[in-house]
Amino acid sequence: MSEDYSNPEGFKRVWSKAIEYLRPPRDYTPAEWAEENVKISLGNAIPGPIRFDNAPYQVEPINMMADPSVERVTLQWGAQTGKTQLLNCVMGYYIHHNPVSQMMMQPSQGDLHTWLETKFNPMVDSSEVLKEVIAKPRSREGVNNQQMKSYPGGFLMFSWSGSPRTMRGRSAPIIYCDEVDGYEYTAEGHPVSLLWQRAATFGDQRKLLVTSTPTRKGSSFVESSFLNGDQRRFHIPCPHCHEEIELKWSNVMWDKNNQGEHLPETARYVCQECGCEIDDGQKRVALRQGRWIASKPFTGHASYHLSELYSAFRRWRDIVRSFLEKKATNDLQSFVNVSLAETWEEDGERIDEHGLAERREPMEAIPDDVATLFAGVDVQDNRLEMTLVGMGRGEELWVYKHLTMYGDPSTPQLWTALDSQLFHQYTTESGRKIAIRATAIDSGGHFTNSVYAYCKKNAHKRVFAIKGMGGEGKPISSRPSRNNVAKCPLFSIGVDTAKDLIFARLRVEEQGEGYIHFSEDLDDEYFRQLTAEKVVTRYHKGFKRRMYEKIRPRNEALDCLVYAYAAYAIIGLNVNALADRLDEKGDDTAPVETKPKPKQRPFVPNTGKNFVNSWR
Q: Which of 134, 176, 216, 230 is the most buried (most CB within 10 A)?
């Protein structure tokens, strides 16, 4: 027993390492742990060890995920605010410092893969403590793949909203749901509720972190979650009057030159309390002195709202440029959602018919800026309604006329009257010949077979039978089906998607790309029909659904305009390239190639011998 050890140095190393595992862990907060152990990978704005001085608003939310009094944290945050980095830091804390099992959900499998490859895995690779505890890929000591990563004391499992099976048979006390407004509802319920239920058995130990940029008013999950919490907003002291203020987009100001052009480089923030200007440098200093202020009592749910205005990596001029770009492309919703972290108000989608009627202009002939024509036809029980639409560069539209042709759609006379409109050669103001390039006719009424017969007969002239399909996210045009009695190509049209586009174009007020012109020949009834629907949010079996609802009984004008745009979508025309060719060619007299009918072979009876004539 008294013999000397042959390797005393090795024994010391083993003993020292064993002592480290026996020593109680340091009483870290998640933010302190992150600053000591997390490095931001190359390719980010400021790579290297994470420092919350650059984003001081992250400290309180990240620490809340270790607060025993907190059960749920919601982040309704905008872009460039670091919500994904915050989520990763909390994960690392519960992997290394306070190991417990965790579950993470992304909107789709592709989103999950992107997050793993660009966010989580680089964080692990740059952290020695995380690499040490997470199981190595293809090793026997644990699991490390695209579905799970194990470590002593727990595991981190992954799922995505479109696959309920990735949520079954799993439970964990810590749940993360990232970008929840992109989740798909399932037949079993909302994915966040399903995943949160997996933590029910853990009682007071369970915690849920919900993050997302918001989407539409009334259907945004993250906004509903934020409103159910204590609604905290970040306030900074004004460097001039020292009053605590919340940064608001309405207080961002910039100048214009003598020609009325915007000058984003002059952007600054004007304090709502004293009227003094706050530049980018003063904002960075004030951020480090800011604090979160709740507007409701805390009951276990801490909810946070933060816009891009607080980002230390975005100057005032950059945000103004983003706003002007989105406004120019009629995409203000993405600015409101992503930059301001606010929901898009649906009430704006109800268009004022009087404002549109005031935009009527003379159109004695097709305007010269029109590159081609499209038509949309709606079939009613006693009439056909048709809208003729011209399209130019940038999908600028001219509604040239809207016709009502009365008659019985089951008789050929009414369709012959339609022929005279669809196959007519029109003339532009300069005398250029132009024809209708494609037509879409609704087949969803009481005269489906008549529509099929007419469209099949004129298919070579690009006359298409269509059927509207409601619901969000459907493409304007999809591949045709011949699964009908007439074997006529039938195109399904995502009418809600098309109406979203039309309503957005109706709001464009400056002539040019996306603007819609109206002929002075259109009467007031046309504009009442054009604005006869509005967007509403309804509940169906407990699920929110965004849909269009009539506010007037007649909406044929809107339908015909949607169908005309659908005709354009079906043929996939590059209207800008066509306009370039017309500048060189000078006319559009042959938009459709009429295929010659093949000569029919004369019928020759078979005179070969068989059991019928072999007796002769």
A: 176
